[in-house]
Structure formats: C-alpha cells, structure tokens
Amino acid sequence: MVDKAQDNSGEQSTLARSKTTVEVRTLADLARIAGVSAGTVSRALAGKSLVNTETRERIQKLAREYGFRPNQMASKLRSRRTGVIGVVIPLGHDKRQHVSDPFFLTLLGALADELTESGYDLMLSRAIPDHTSDWLERMTGSGMVDGVIVIGQSDQFDTIERVAANYRPMVVWGQYRTGQTHCVVGTDNAAGGRMAARKLIDGGARRLAFLGSTTGIEIAIRFEGARQEAARAGIGITHIPVHLADEEMADEVAAALGYGSGSEYDGIIAASDLIAMGALRVLFENGHQVPVEVQVIGFDDLPLSAQTHPPLTTIRQEIHAGARAMVERLKALIDNSEAESLVMEPRVVTRASTR
C-alpha cells in the first residue's frame, strides 16, 4: 500500500524537476503548458476581463511558478503604448509657485495612486509658459507618453484648447467653460466662491476681503462668485491680490492684514487653504481674535486645514474623487472612447475659524 503523503511528495518533486528542465521564455511556451493560445496568455497576463477569471488566475499562477516575465518593451512596441502618463503643471499665472505646494502634492499623490493601480508610470513636468510657447506640445508630441494630465489651466486656456483640437488623450484639472474642446475635471468654482461669502455673511461679517491673485482662471471665478453673493447681500468686497508662491504670499498677506490693518475686515475669503493659513498666522501675530473679530475661510480642504489654530473652515474640493475621474476619463480617451467633462459640487467644511 502506497502512503499518500509520500505519493504527493513524489508528485511535487517530479513537478519541481520538470519546471527546472522546462524553459519558459515566450508567450508561446507558456501557452503550450497552459493549453491555451498565446493571445489568451497575453490577455490573461495583462489582466484583461476578456479571459474568464478562472483561466486568467490559472495562467498567472503558472507564470509565477515558471518565473516567466513577458518582455514588456516588445509588448509596448507591438501595442504602440509606452505605459507612461505625462503630468504637466503650467505656472504661467504664478511662475514662482512650486510643485511642493500642498495642493499639488495632494492631487499628485492621488493621481499617482490611481495611475499605478491602472498599470501606468507617471512622468512629471513643471512648465513655465513664458519661457516657451510649445510647453504642452513638447509633452504631447514626445512619443514618450500614452496620454497627458494637465493640473490647472493657469492662464493657458487658449493653448490647451489649441492642443486639444489635435491631441485627444488629455484631461485637465480646472474650470469648465461651455463649448470647450478639452476634457476637464474640476470644481464649480463660482459656487464655491458664493458658498464662502454666504458662510461669512451668515456669521455676521459685513466687511469682506478676498485674498488671491485672479490671473489664474479658477481663482478668478471663485472671486466672481464671492463678489456676486456679497452684492446680493448689499455688501462690498475688497480684492487683495495675493500670489500662491511662498516668497510673495507671506509679504502680501502681512501687508494686507498686519500692522493693525486687519481690523478693516471682519470676514476674509482666501483663494486657497495655504493663503488662509497665512492669514490666520498674521492675524494672530497682530493680536486679532479669530473668529471673534475676524472670520477666515479657505478653499481646498487640504489635510493641513484641520491642523491650524483655530482649525480652518474651508470650501472642500473633492481632490481624490477628481483624481479618480481624471484617470478614468484619460483611459477612455486612450482607448478611443468618449469622455465628458465633470464639474464637481463643492461644499462648506465648518471648523472654528468662522462663526
């Protein structure tokens, strides 16, 4: 009588010896072992849903057991794909702004997660449009990427539109305009501006200031929304240009709110959370109590906004959901499918910097 444990052990050792003698170097080799076509193996290893789950998992298991890794370069040449997505941040409106800006880092992190899970690598470029008029064409025409994501329209709406007329796989984070060519994912900035102004007015503010440079499209729309809401309440609003670059922002916020001048306003709408954080610091340093004397509201709802003193009330942009939507739309465009723009609704996140 044969012991089953010994019998199984013998079978396993025979299989192990066979794997050391069988060399699997090509898709055809693995296909012969799996008893399927090379095309099925290719689709299974790529995780395609065209192959049923059981077959796909069996082929992937065999590939691991035989130590088979497909030639990715050859595969990319055959499919005319690079497996790389270009991500461009144009800074025509604020040339000193850095990629280390907390908003960029938050959105880039979310995009990197989504792209990696979709099997793509990411190539990042920070573009200063003043230095070259073909900043976007250099990425789209490089042959190095399968598609492009643009973070922010800056003051480059017309350039993006021109490129989008001839280059399809591109998605932009920014402001949607009726009839535009390029696919955009972003927040309803006008609604966000209205919400910010209404929040301060409902809290009793009557002397409003908007801190932010309006050379960029999104911030210009936020200011216009805030101005319209203030006008409906019969209240004026002072626009104070503040850049997003750290080097300029600190001095501009200090000039606007420091040295006793902060008492001119009892409600401050900041174009970004970073500007709002600067406002909180300057008001504190000059002896103004927030929100008793001055209410402050930001825009973005970055993770840092809950850590300020006092915690910052802000207008939330759905950054992670937006990143997911951008990648989904870009994948559709790469596959020659249709993709519609998405305008996401903002919402007020109330914390202790407002009443």
Automatic annotation (TrEMBL):
<dbReference type="InterPro" id="IPR010982">
    <property type="entry name" value="Lambda_DNA-bd_dom_sf"/>
</dbReference>
<keyword id="KW-0805">Transcription regulation</keyword>
<dbReference type="GO" id="GO:0000976">
    <property type="term" value="F:transcription cis-regulatory region binding"/>
</dbReference>
<dbReference type="GO" id="GO:0003700">
    <property type="term" value="F:DNA-binding transcription factor activity"/>
</dbReference>
<dbReference type="InterPro" id="IPR028082">
    <property type="entry name" value="Peripla_BP_I"/>
</dbReference>
<dbReference type="InterPro" id="IPR000843">
    <property type="entry name" value="HTH_LacI"/>
</dbReference>
<dbReference type="Pfam" id="PF13377">
    <property type="entry name" value="Peripla_BP_3"/>
</dbReference>
<dbReference type="Pfam" id="PF00356">
    <property type="entry name" value="LacI"/>
</dbReference>
<feature type="domain" description="HTH lacI-type">
    <location>
        <begin position="25"/>
        <end position="79"/>
    </location>
</feature>
<keyword id="KW-0804">Transcription</keyword>
<keyword id="KW-0238">DNA-binding</keyword>
<protein>
    <submittedName>
        <fullName>LacI family DNA-binding transcriptional regulator</fullName>
    </submittedName>
</protein>
<dbReference type="InterPro" id="IPR046335">
    <property type="entry name" value="LacI/GalR-like_sensor"/>
</dbReference>
